[in-house]
Each structure stands twice: as C-alpha cells, then as structure tokens.
Design brief:
By secondary structure, this protein is an alpha+beta fold. The protein contains 11 helices and 13 strands. It has 3 domains: 58-156, no CATH class; 159-276, Trna Endonuclease, Chain: A, domain 1, CATH 3.40.1350; 326-410, Nucleic acid-binding proteins (OB fold (Dihydrolipoamide Acetyltransferase, E2P), Beta Barrel), CATH 2.40.50.140. The structure holds iron/sulfur cluster. The site of iron/sulfur cluster (SF4) has 15 residues, from helix 2, helix 10 and helix 11. Residues 162-181 are annotated as: Disordered.
Length: 417
C-alpha cells in the first residue's frame, strides 16, 4: 500500500516539512525516539526541500557523539578483521598479526576519524569554523580514543569457528522483504555487525558481536556512553530478534547471555527465558502499533518537558516549545544560556539590536550579535537558540549575546506559512 507523505508547515522560513511515512521496519532507537516525542521523531526525519537536499533536518553533531561514533567505527573495523581471520582471542598471535596488518590501534583510529569527518554533511547549520573546531577537537583526542578502543578489544572474547573463519556465514546484510543484501543462517563461530529481523513484528536491529558455540549463543553490544538501563532493554530486544529471525537462526536457538561493553567494564545479564521472550514480543507488538499510529497522525504529537526539549535539535521548528517551554528572559540569572523568540526592533549599535516583546511591542532585550551574524531586519520575528544573558549597565537593560554557536531562525510572516 503506498502512503502519501504529509506536509507540515513550521513557522520557520524555508522549513516546510515533508513528514516521514511509516517505516518498513522499526528499530530500538527509532521506537524509543517516537515514544519520547513523536514530533521530534517526525521533524528530525522529515525532508525540507526548500532548505537543503540532505536527509532529515540538518543536525549539529556534538563532539561527544562524534567521538563515540569513532570508537564504535574502529571497534567494528578491528573486531570484523579478527572474525574474518578466525581469531580465537584478541590476545592470540593471529590477532596480533591482524592488528599489525591494520597498522595498529592508532592508525585505525585516525582512519576512522578521517572517514567520519569526510562524512559530515555540508549542512546549513554547520559552518566552516564550527567544522574546523570539531575537526581540531576530534584529532586532539586520538590518544584517548586509542586507549578506549584497546580496552574494549582486550575485554572482548571470541569463539573460533570450526573451519577457521566464520565470515562466510555472517549476516551483515538482509534477505526477504526490505533488505538490500542476502542473509543466511549463522554458522558456529563469531560474527560482527549482524543484522537481525523479526519480519512479523517489523522490527530489526544490528548487533555488534554474535558468538555461537555448540552449547550457547551470546550477544555483545559496544556502548560508548554512560551506563543506562535502556542498553539492557536494547540487548533483550536483540535476544528476541535472534529468537524470531527465521533466516539467521532457523533452529530458533535461545541466547544465553547478553553483554553491554562499556569503556571501563562489561555488564553481563542472563538472556530472557522463553516465556519472558513471549511477553516481550507481545509488548513490542503493542509498541510498534502505537508508533505506527503516532506517525500517521495528521500533526505529530509534541511531548514537551525539560528533559525532552533541552537537547532537541528541532525545537526551533516546534511551536509548542516556544509557547510552553521557552523561558522569560527577565526570570533568568546573568550568564544563563537560553532560547528566545521576539521581534527585531531598532538597531542600537553596529552589531546590536533591540528585541521587542511580540505582544506588547515593548523593548525586552538588547541583543549583541557576532561579526558573522547577518544584519537583522527590523519588524521580522526571530527565534534564537543558545544565547547568553548578560547585564548592560550602560543601557540599563537586559542584554544577551550571541556566540559562534548561537543560531538565529527567521519566522514566516503570519499567514505566509
Ligand atoms: S521541542 Fe520538545 S516538544 Fe518540541 S519536538 Fe522537541 S522534544 Fe518535542
């Protein structure tokens, strides 16, 4: 059944959204995200043809996320190479030879950093100086990344496949509906980056390391953030996917243990029993049904709260945020970072403007801009993200400053959207 994408008019110029349609498959993070705030899910994944040709709303990558991605990418390279070579332990002589061939931990780390930096999209929200700063900071953390990657690798256990390499049996692609690459039954041994799917549930997931022995099956997922109970829920979902995947696991073996590998330790839990898996299956069926309903709503539902909105990368597009969550600048202490919506009033200096309260038209804030901020246009309505409250004794006014990380969005004139 073909589904027509819905248009959603945000109040921001050039940001009319074509909302995403129901995905063929849900995965753990997408389900969590739509449950957290359906509007954030939809606006993040919508397309914005008037703004750019990229996928979703342009994001500003954080250094922490990029760093985590580098660790994950390097682990993928190294563990896949170990598995392909049939290594039985990261400390064994064959693993040492594999690492030498890869150029060592530092060389792998640097290559992955190069790759991730090259993949940063040319985005209307990521300016050249921000990109350069990001690059400098990331390259400055090579030694730290290398140490973390080595620690993860040293704690990884592998299982040799009976025939040496198990890679011919790994399943990093897919078959059946919706998958680009063929999937096959997984043979005994270790497998990196395995794609699992429960077709009836329309759920899929990619696990970092699957180990299949005669008497047990174990799943490991590398986690670069802080410990979170959600990581264990994700692993339980993987155990269910493995159980229901009729292609990769045709004999429907159960998983024995699940491991979340963190920078400093592994957290291992027993896998769910058969009856616990059936309960999980039924709860996930309800969750995917609810997620489908959310995505089909004419207007994506907003769930505003401090936790959701403070890190939301599409809050500039969300009218609910601006009417319910954005603070009154007069209630804030000096030095507070905040978001603001108002109207541009008279220019005060070469780089400063008065901002007016939208309803009363009274002067509310004196805004100092940066050398690269384009001139503000009097009478236009704007939203500002990440400005800092500052006192201005000279003008006896509440002032705010923009920095290189602040962002400004011009709103469409009423009736224009
Ligand atoms: S600002 Fe808050 S309510 Fe709006 S989309 Fe983001 S998380 Fe949801």
């Amino acid at each position: 059944m073909s589904v027509t994408a819905k248009q959603y008019h945000t109040s921001v110029e050039k940001s009319s959204a074509v909302l995403p349609t129901r995905p063929s498959f849900w995965n753990y993070s997408a389900l969590k995200e739509i449950e957290t705030c359906p509007r954030r899910y939809s606006l993040s994944r919508a397309s914005y043809p008037d703004l750019w040709g990229g996928q979703g709303y342009p994001q500003i990558p954080t250094l922490a996320a990029l760093f985590g991605d580098v660790i994950h990418g390097a682990l993928d390279v190294i563990v896949t190479a170990f598995v392909d070579a049939g290594c039985d332990s990261p400390q064994g002589t064959s693993a040492v030879a594999v690492l030498r061939k890869l150029g060592g931990y530092t060389a792998v780390t640097e290559r992955v950093i190069d790759d991730r930096l090259a993949r940063l999209p040319t985005s209307p929200r990521l300016h050249a100086d921000q990109r350069q700063r990001m690059e400098r900071n990331l390259r400055g953390r090579v030694a730290e990344a290398r140490a973390q990657i080595q620690a993860y690798v040293c704690r990884t256990t592998l299982i040799p496949s009976p025939s040496g390499s198990a890679s011919d049996a790994t399943t990093s692609g897919g078959s059946g509906s919706g998958f680009a690459l063929p999937r096959r039954p997984a043979k005994p041994g270790a497998h990196a980056e395995v794609l699992l799917a429960a077709e009836e549930l329309r759920l899929m997931g990619r696990i970092d390391l699957l180990k299949i022995a005669d008497d047990r099956v174990d799943i490991t997922d590398y986690k670069t953030g802080t410990e979170d109970p959600g990581h264990l829920d994700q692993l339980r979902l993987y155990a269910l996917l493995w159980n229901l995947d009729q292609i990769v696991n045709p004999s429907r073996r159960l998983v024995s243990e699940l491991t979340a590998a963190y920078p400093n330790r592994n957290v291992t839990i027993p896998a769910p029993s058969e009856s616990a898996l059936r309960e999980l299956e039924s709860s996930l069926k309800q969750r995917t049904t609810s997620a489908d309903e959310e995505i089909q709503a004419p207007v994506p539902r907003a769930i505003p709260n401090d936790q959701n909105c403070s890190t939301c990368q599409v809050r500039q597009l969300c009218d609910v945020y601006w009417s319910q969550m954005a603070p009154d600048p007069l209630s804030l202490a000096d030095g507070t970072w905040f978001d603001y919506q108002g109207m541009v009033g008279p220019q005060n200096g070469s780089r400063s403007w008065w901002l007016l309260h939208e309803k009363s038209g009274q002067k509310q804030l004196l805004l100092r801009t940066t050398a690269t901020t384009p001139p503000l246009s009097g009478g236009s309505r704007i939203r500002l993200l990440g400005i800092r409250l500052d006192d201005d004794p000279e003008n006896n006014a509440t002032a705010a400053i923009m920095t290189v990380s602040s962002e400004m969005f011009v709103l469409t004139a009423p009736g224009n959207s």
